[in-house]
């Protein structure tokens, strides 16, 4: 860990992966080198990734540095929320009960089903023609 880095964790959702580092600061978010408002334009998704801070009343105590890849914006937001929750638990074990009850520590494992051989998609078949 870096000198002023307090905690780090990895979160996942669908095919998205997010690595979060908590640094003592004022609550500034940086995602892939860009401020969070530019990276995630949706206000509802920004509220979603901030949930662990709001529930544990730690908002504004840490700067958050995120490296996110894979999936889409919503999947990455879910991965960020998961990673942030895990990082907060690593900092203070007493926060675990609150975050677990809210479902922030649960990895959303729903993935896209793979395409099967001899089919058009995961479940869709090629059109059958009798003649």
Automatic annotation (TrEMBL):
UniProt xrefs under InterPro entries: Ribosomal_Su5_D2-typ_SF, Ribosomal_uS9, Ribosomal_uS9_bac/plastid, Ribosomal_uS9_CS, Ribsml_uS5_D2-typ_fold_subgr
Presence of the UniProt keyword Ribosomal protein in the record: yes
SUPFAM superfamilies (UniProt xref): Ribosomal protein S5 domain 2-like
Keyword Ribosomal protein: yes
Region (Disordered): 109-131
Biological processes annotated in GO: translation
GO molecular function terms noted in the UniProt entry: RNA binding; structural constituent of ribosome
Keywords on record: Ribonucleoprotein, Ribosomal protein
GO terms for cellular component: cytosolic small ribosomal subunit
PANTHER family with a match to the protein in the record: RIBOSOMAL PROTEIN S9, SMALL RIBOSOMAL SUBUNIT PROTEIN US9M
HAMAP family in UniProt: Ribosomal_uS9_B (MF_00532_B)
NCBIfam families (UniProt xref): PRK00132.1
Protein family according to the UniProt entry: Belongs to the universal ribosomal protein uS9 family.
Record protein name field: Small ribosomal subunit protein uS9
